[in-house]
């Protein structure tokens, strides 16, 4: 969807399939945009407000067939409440969903709000709510297309704001497509092919794909141990963004994603109920992959490397067994006590590669890592761990700006005894219930960062909500790259 900033115009004169009007907590049909539309519709808006049928509660949507002097086919009033960016984004999602339901192809939003951040959040939210994944639907009524454009008329949105919102929302949609695609189509090889597509679109974005031979030479025994049970070959996808104008001796942001395209649990197999959703176990990798494309599209003046560890986790005669000991790229030995704790094995090698081979100076990983994260924070917040206070604060600020909600979690050396093995250096799964599994996993990952400032974002509860991919993390990555570019 293309988001555009248009010159000011009377709301009633705007031509669109749906005219969207954000409504504050206390609607007033006697002033501003609502007054213009109300006059053109012979007082219908005022009557709705008087009856309490047009509310300012966040996300409350009232749809009208326009008529009268209004040029749009429909008028959609959506409550934004009293107003932070999260409320405006949530309202935008509701508006986009309702516009999709009526088959709107061209939408316009007009508002009296003068805060560009709020209007941008609404526009991005509209794109998110308008998204649909119909690739595998054959019925004609399931193929209603999403809107192609959203025109933000008048107000504070600049052309640059609109361009950024278009790029970010498109990348989020692409990440959602990847998460929603079944594993028989989205293999590690297919993820690598998508990365190559993005690199072909941008002169300053390159990609290399490391297969079994390269990973063996690198001694990436942790990641290879996960891939052993599958007929699909693994791929460590390395995307490098080196824009002209970025200091060659400056910081390098490393974005690392877990890309397990299907997770059966391996020999420690998962219960069958809900296993079909394990196609989403590459949600962190999808966010990193598509964020790299958005960063390149926007020309952010910051060097960034994106590393995605893509593989399947399957049971077979060649699969890693509980009790096996593997050696990670940094030489650390790991006793695999649970093959369903595979994501941390993939990330162990991906993080170490990013720090030492890709020379990242700061790293953030995104992973659908633990069921414990879902229990702790549900589908609202992702967990955030960090090894460096200043960098962690920057990551959290970027998350707030993007609307990717994160909550700080503990990381401390006193948790180290929990991850020690009697057989090897580390064990990949907790033998005690003294700390949540999500804390254990973060403590484990910290052993492979080569002391580079690092944050871990566990998106197990936020990468897929109600069976559908969300694209969580894309906006955070873009905002973080922009923040680092600004110094």
Write the layout of secondary structure elements.
Layout lengths: L1 E5 L11 E7 L7 H9 L3 H8 L9 E5 L8 E8 L3 H17 L4 E5 L5 H15 L18 E5 L5 H22 L7 H14 L3 E6 L1 H6 L3 H7 L7 E7 L10 E12 L19 H16 L4 E11 L11 E3 L5 E3 L7 H14 L5 E6 L3 H7 L4 E5 L2 H14 L3 E3 L17 E2 L9 H9 L8 E5 L5 E2 L2 E2 L4 H12 L2
Parallel strand pairs: 1-6, 2-4, 2-5, 5-6, 9-10, 9-13, 12-16, 13-17, 14-15
Antiparallel strand pairs: 3-4, 7-8, 8-10, 11-12, 14-17, 18-19
Helix pairs in contact: 3-4, 4-5, 5-9, 6-9, 8-10, 9-14, 10-13, 12-14
Radius of gyration: 24 Å
CATH class of the largest domain: Alpha Beta
Describe the largest sheet: 8 strands, mixed
Q: State the assembly state of the protein chains.
A: single chain
Notable features of this structure?
Leucine Aminopeptidase, subunit E, domain 1; 2 domains; alpha/beta; six-stranded mixed beta sheet; 487 residues; 14 helices; eight-stranded mixed beta sheet; 21% strand; elongated; Aminopeptidase
How would you characterize this protein structure?
α8 (221-227) runs antiparallel to α10 and α9 packs across α14 (474-485). The longest helix has 22 residues, at 159-180. The chain has helices spanning 32-40, 44-51, 85-101, 116-130, 159-180, 188-201, 212-217, 221-227, 283-298, 343-356, 371-377, 389-402, 437-445, 474-485; strands spanning 2-6, 18-24, 61-65, 74-81, 106-110, 149-153, 205-210, 235-241, 252-263, 303-313, 325-327, 333-335, 362-367, 382-386, 406-408, 426-427, 454-458, 464-465, 468-469. It is an alpha/beta fold. The radius of gyration is 24 Å and the shape is elongated. It is built from 14 helices and 19 strands.
């Amino acid at each position: 969807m293309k988001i555009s900033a248009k010159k000011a115009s009377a709301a009633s004169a705007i031509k669109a399939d749906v005219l969207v009007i954000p409504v504050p907590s206390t609607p007033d049909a006697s002033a501003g945009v609502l007054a213009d539309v109300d006059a053109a519709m012979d007082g219908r808006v005022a009557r709705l407000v008087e009856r309490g049928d047009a509310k300012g509660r966040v996300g409350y949507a009232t749809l009208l067939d326009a008529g009268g002097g209004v040029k749009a086919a429909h008028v959609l009033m959506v409550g934004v409440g009293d107003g932070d960016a999260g409320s405006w984004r949530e309202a935008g999602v509701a508006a986009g969903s309702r516009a999709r339901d009526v088959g709107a192809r061209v939408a316009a939003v007009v508002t009296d709000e003068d805060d560009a951040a709020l209007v941008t959040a609404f526009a991005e939210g509209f794109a998110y709510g308008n998204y649909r994944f119909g690739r595998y639907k054959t019925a004609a009524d399931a193929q209603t297309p999403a809107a192609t454009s959203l025109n933000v008329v008048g107000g504070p949105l600049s052309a640059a704001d609109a361009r950024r919102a278009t790029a970010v929302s498109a990348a989020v949609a692409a990440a959602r497509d990847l998460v929603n695609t079944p594993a028989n189509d989205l293999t590690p090889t297919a993820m690598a092919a998508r990365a190559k597509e993005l690199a072909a679109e941008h002169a300053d974005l390159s990609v290399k794909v490391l297969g079994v031979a390269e990973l063996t030479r690198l001694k990436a025994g942790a990641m290879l141990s996960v891939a052993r049970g599958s007929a699909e070959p693994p791929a460590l996808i390395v995307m490098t963004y080196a824009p002209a104008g970025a200091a060659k001796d400056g910081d390098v942001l490393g974005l690392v994603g877990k890309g397990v395209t299907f997770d059966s649990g391996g020999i420690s197999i998962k219960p069958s109920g809900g296993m079909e959703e394990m196609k989403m176990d590459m949600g962190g990798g999808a966010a990193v992959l598509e964020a790299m494309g958005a960063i390149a599209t926007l020309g952010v003046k910051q060097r960034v490397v994106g590393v995605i560890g893509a593989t399947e986790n399957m049971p077979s005669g060649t699969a890693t067994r509980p009790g096996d000991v593997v050696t990670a790229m940094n030489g650390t030995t790991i006793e695999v006590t649970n093959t369903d704790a595979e994501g941390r094995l993939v990330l162990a090698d991906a993080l170490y590669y990013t720090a030492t081979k890709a020379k990242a100076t700061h790293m953030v990983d995104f992973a659908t890592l633990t069921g414990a994260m879902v229990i702790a924070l549900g589908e609202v917040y992702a967990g955030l761990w960090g090894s460096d206070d200043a960098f962690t604060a920057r990551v959290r600020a970027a998350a707030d700006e993007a609307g990717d909600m994160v909550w700080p979690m503990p990381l401390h050396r006193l948790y180290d005894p929990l991850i020690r093995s009697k057989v090897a250096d580390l064990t990949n799964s907790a033998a005690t219930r003294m700390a949540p599994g999500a804390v254990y996993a973060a403590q484990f990952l910290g052993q492979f960062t080569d002391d580079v400032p690092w944050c871990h974002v566990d998106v197990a509860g936020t990468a897929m909500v109600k069976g559908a991919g969300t694209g969580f993390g894309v906006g955070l990555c873009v905002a973080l790259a922009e923040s680092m570019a600004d110094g």
